[in-house]
Amino acid sequence: MNIPEIKAIALKYQLGIFPQRMGQHFLVDGGVLARIAEALGPTAEDTVLEIGPGLGALTEQLIFRAGRLIAVEKDRKFLEVLTDRFKTVDHLQLVRSDILKVDWAALAGGREKSLLVAGNIPYALTSPIIEALVTHRQWIRRAVLTIQKEVADRIVAAPGRRAYSSLSVLTRVGFVPKIAFRIHAGAFYPRPRVVSAVLKLDALAQPAVPPELEEPVLRLTRHLFTHRRKTLLNGLTGFNQLAREELLKRLHAAGISPTVRAETLDLGMLTRLAASLT
User: Fold this and answer.
1) Domain segments of the chain: what residues?
2) Of 67, 110, 157, 192, which alpha carbon lies 20 to 30 A from 163's?
3) Inter-residue contact 69 to 50 (CB < 8 Å)
4) Is 211-277 assigned to CATH 3.10.450.50?
5) What are the tens digits of pLDDT across the range 150-168?
6) Do domains 3-203 and 211-277 have the same CATH topology?
7) 216-262: per-residue pLDDT in tens?
8) Domain 3-203 belongs to what topology?
9) How far apart are CA 122 and CA 49, in angstroms?
10) Contact at 8 Å (CB) between 55 and 6?
11) For residue 213, which phi and psi values (nearest 5 degrees)?
């Protein structure tokens, strides 16, 4: 799909304020779209869930690779375009819904680790969508998402790096994150002001955090990263209504120095600390 085709569709379907409808930037580079589909790696045996297909540029690449394609689109006008463009494709299911509200179990047909997820994600929705993927990870085998490179760097950052954040920790609860490749601004219409990247998330074979500790770990992580430059002891003051002396005992029990900073703790250390503080 090229820029003249997008403009023609916008005119035909009266898409309103365009091209930046809903803050989206549409991929128009066929080579990049093919690389995204290849990174996802669907076969005729797989079910692919596409998040926000928009005008269907990535959909075109996924249709002939996947055995079944479920495209979840919130925008009524985009859904109208998709319905007309792909009306002869029997293995495509169009779902009008917000991806943050869908029934993942139903879309997966109750089969764990059965979904491959792809999407060119509106940058403002990256964090909520990552959180949704982690929450519903039992149904997901792999996800490949186009997002802002700065956010991708945060997600894959290692402990101790400036970009390391609570989003880095959250993602690793369910997935192994990796940047597959960068995308130049000219691959989009309209041209974004930021650099983009394709993020690949492979589901963990085994849980990284015991189920009973997942909520405490995430709550602790969110708390600590609001005080990321403070020492642990200072950052934890008042956490779970524990006195400073008690916090020192709990940190010692977890084998973690009270003088280190949150930004140096990996998921394993955060899990031990959450267990000690619970």
Assistant:
1) 3-203, 211-277
2) 192
3) yes
4) no
5) 999 999 999 999 999 999 9
6) no
7) 999 999 999 998 889 999 999 889 999 999 999 999 999 999 999 99
8) Rossmann fold (3.40.50)
9) 16
10) yes
11) -105, -5
What residue type is assigned to position 233 of the chain? L
User: pTM for this structure?
Assistant: 0.94
> What are 183's two structure tokens?
């995308």
| Residues shown for the chain | 278
Residue 127 CB neighbours (<10 A)? 17
Amino acid at 203: A
Rg, Å, the chain Cα set? 21
CA distance 50 to 71: 5
In 225-266, where does DSSP find H-type helix? Answer: 232-235, 244-254
Strand 188-189, strand 115-120: pairing: unpaired
Residue with tokens 């403009």: 7
For residue 135, the surrounding DSSP H or E stretch is helix 126-135
CA-to-CA distance for 234 and 236, rounded, in angstroms? 5
CB 255 within 8 A of CB 238: no
Cα(144)–Cα(275) distance, rounded to whole angstroms? 32
Tokens coding 211: 């189920």
